[in-house]
Write a structure and sequence with these properties.
4-stranded mixed β-sheet, 393 residues, 7 helices, disordered N terminus, rod-shaped, single chain, alpha/beta
């Protein structure tokens, strides 16, 4: 009030003429004062009331993980609106409940949940880095009994981790909670319901990790390969490779079909099986190769029932065993990945299959189907040396 009266007195002096120095500068000074006067005299207006929020309280050491730490919390909600629709206090005691109003967590829904997780879950280096995705977090209140509100909370989270640059989906959690509160108690029951639901979700995931870490391939940290050969089995139609059981005349059951000067034919092949077993964070890959000849596809002319001809056909069988040995040595932890070991192993198998066919063609071409004895001897020595190197002979 004092400042306003002084300004008014000053303006009166100006309008009466005032001193000469003021009259000479009156237009500029007067314009300045006229602009400033409304600002100084304008009464203050109250701003809009702050939007209501819920303050989410952390729960220190809600869990103590031994298999993971939370590396990130991401918002994957389809609609990222305020987490709650709450009933405010009625305008009059005992009056009808007003329409729900949007209420978010203090600092924003995602930021508040990130802080809650960071303060509630200890972070230990060296464990699996887990990402938590917030799929749904919605608290809806509706009128209940007169003077009461009924709240329903729905919470959905998914958990994943990044292994060798690839996202591995682990598990999901869906929870719900209900509560009732008097309309006069503001939002006292809402925050504990959300806090307890978040703790329950974290406890669920911690328990899931503790149960699954030892035997779930999704959680394996490294890979080991255990190669082996299929044990010898005697079957009517199939002869499995074994140094102790070479080809013999009774193994050639097909009707002879001589061509290109060949006196016999044998069609060896190989396959593999792989069984994965997770144990204490290690994925053990049990790889077994099977080298075999189908007897009903193999034939030998009666005139070729001699040791030399039988040896030529046996070397076809030996060459496939060599390719299988090389295949096993290609399938190593360095050549595979935990996330794609099956496809990479299949690729190596196809490469070895091509190698097998090329070797068979090269062997027959250089030995002229066994008729070139000098070349046959060179191949005999080469094959024997490689078999010994792989520990087969």
């Amino acid at each position: 009030m004092l400042l306003a009266s002084r300004i008014l007195h000053f303006l009166q002096l100006v309008t009466r003429g005032g001193p000469a120095w003021l009259r000479r500068r009156r237009p500029a000074r007067l314009a300045l004062l006229l602009v400033a006067l409304p600002v100084l005299a304008q009464p203050g207006r109250p701003g809009p009331p702050p939007a209501p929020t819920l303050t989410l309280q952390a729960v220190p050491a809600a869990i103590t993980p031994t298999q993971f730490y939370v590396a990130a919390v991401l918002d994957a909600r389809p609609e990222r609106h305020a987490v709650a629709a709450m009933l405010p206090r009625p305008a009059q005691p005992g009056g009808p409940a007003p329409a729900p109003e949007a209420v978010d967590l203090q600092g924003g829904g995602l930021a508040a949940i990130c802080e809650f997780v960071a303060r509630s879950v200890p972070r230990a280096a060296g464990l699996r880095p887990v990402t938590v995705r917030l799929r749904e977090c919605r608290l809806q209140e509706t009128p209940g009994a007169p003077g009461w509100a009924t709240g329903k909370l729905t919470l959905a989270l998914s958990f994943e981790w990044l292994r060798n640059g690839r996202t591995i989906a682990l598990t999901t959690y869906t929870g719900a909670a209900r509560y009732q509160r008097p309309l006069t108690s503001a939002y006292a029951a809402a925050e504990p319901a959300l806090r307890q639901a978040l703790v329950a979700a974290l406890q669920y995931f911690d328990g899931w990790m503790n149960r699954e870490a030892a035997a779930n391939a999704k959680l394996a940290l490294r890979l080991q390969v255990h190669p082996s050969n299929s044990p010898f089995r005697h079957e009517a139609d199939t002869l499995f490779y074994s140094p102790a059981h070479p080809l013999s005349y009774p193994d050639f059951l097909a009707v002879p079909r001589p061509r290109n000067g060949a006196v016999g034919a044998v069609f060896p092949s190989f396959a593999y099986t792989a069984q994965a077993q997770a144990l204490n964070g290690v994925l053990h890959l049990h790889l077994q190769t099977k080298v075999f000849v189908v007897r009903t596809n193999s034939w030998l002319l009666p005139s070729a029932h001699d040791a030399y001809s039988l040896n030529h056909e046996q070397r076809h069988f030996d060459l496939v065993q060599l390719v299988a040995e090389r295949f096993k040595r290609k399938v190593t932890p360095d050549s595979l990945t935990l996330d794609n070991y099956d496809a990479r192993m299949q690729f190596q198998f196809l490469q070895s299959w091509r190698e097998m066919n090329q070797l068979q063609d090269q062997y027959d071409a250089e030995t002229s189907h066994g008729q070139n004895q000098a070349a046959q001897q060179r191949w005999n020595e080469r094959i024997e040396a490689e078999l010994r190197r792989y520990g087969v002979k």
